[in-house]
Design brief:
Distance between the termini: 22 Å
Number of helices: 6
Radius of gyration: 19 Å
Strand content: 15-25%
Largest sheet: 7 strands, mixed
Structural class: alpha/beta
């Protein structure tokens, strides 16, 4: 993709992520199984969703990456009504490379023909109007384990050259520096340069807050990858082959 195409696509996907967060937040506040509010419908505009958070047998609310993925797809489809990019998507998309160590051991891409490996999957892939992969996306929920982050970020690192890569996570809430520190360490895995864009949303905000409300906490991780005083888009572009060169 050209510089202009990458920046335009990033602008679209960033907006889709923001709208997906609004949708999943609205659903969490108003659409829970067996908690019907007669005065609340599916919402309108950028918060419109028919997503419901289901419950377990013990009446606890299930929060998973599935709700996040479908909120993203709703927002993505809505974006195509107003954008002229003519984008498409696939789910559980097979990787182009083979990998090993996903069930035990250290995850790695198979680079030797003598090594046994298998294809992985991307949660969601965006395609251009030529049906070429242009954006790879992984979803995660609830501060999953180190290995779960490591293998997903590895796939994005290995197959992200010339493409946008997003790792998007949803949490019920976060407990200040403890949760943020834990996530920062995981987000660094296979993402030392910050090529993969990290977005994270807490449905109840910070657990210690008096008024709990949904909060986009992506900004708490951004400084990890961006040098102070530099334009984040220029640094972002510099990570791509043929991208803008920072001066």
């Amino acid at each position: 993709m050209s510089e202009k195409e990458i920046l335009y696509l990033k602008e679209i996907i960033d907006k889709v992520v923001e709208d997906a967060f609004k949708r999943i937040n609205y659903a969490y506040q108003h659409h829970r199984e067996k908690e019907k509010n007669e005065d609340v419908g599916p919402g309108e505009g950028e918060i419109a969703t028919r997503l419901i958070f289901p419950k377990y047998a013990n009446n606890g609310i299930r929060i998973s990456e599935q709700e996040l993925r479908f909120a993203f797809v709703e927002a993505f489809n809505a974006s195509q009504d107003v954008e002229d990019a003519n984008l498409f998507y696939s789910v559980e998309t097979p990787t182009e490379k083979q990998y090993t160590g996903f069930t035990k051991g250290k995850p790695m891409a198979v680079k030797d023909s003598d090594m046994d490996g298998r294809s992985g999957e991307f949660d969601l892939v965006i395609f251009n109007d030529k049906h070429e992969r242009v954006c790879l996306i992984e979803f995660k929920a609830n501060n999953a384990g180190k290995s779960e982050h490591e293998k997903d970020l590895l796939k994005l690192k290995e197959e992200g050259n010339g493409r946008l890569c997003y790792f998007i996570e949803v949490l019920r809430s976060y407990s200040g520096t403890n949760t943020i520190g834990s996530l920062k360490n995981k987000f660094r895995l296979n993402n030392e340069e910050g090529k993969t864009i990290i977005r994270c949303f807490a449905l109840e905000g910070e657990s210690r807050a008096k008024e709990q409300k949904g909060e986009d906490i992506s900004k708490l991780f951004m400084k990890q990858f961006i040098r102070s005083g530099c334009d984040k888009d220029l640094i972002f572009m510099n990570l791509y082959e043929g991208g803008l060169k920072k001066t």
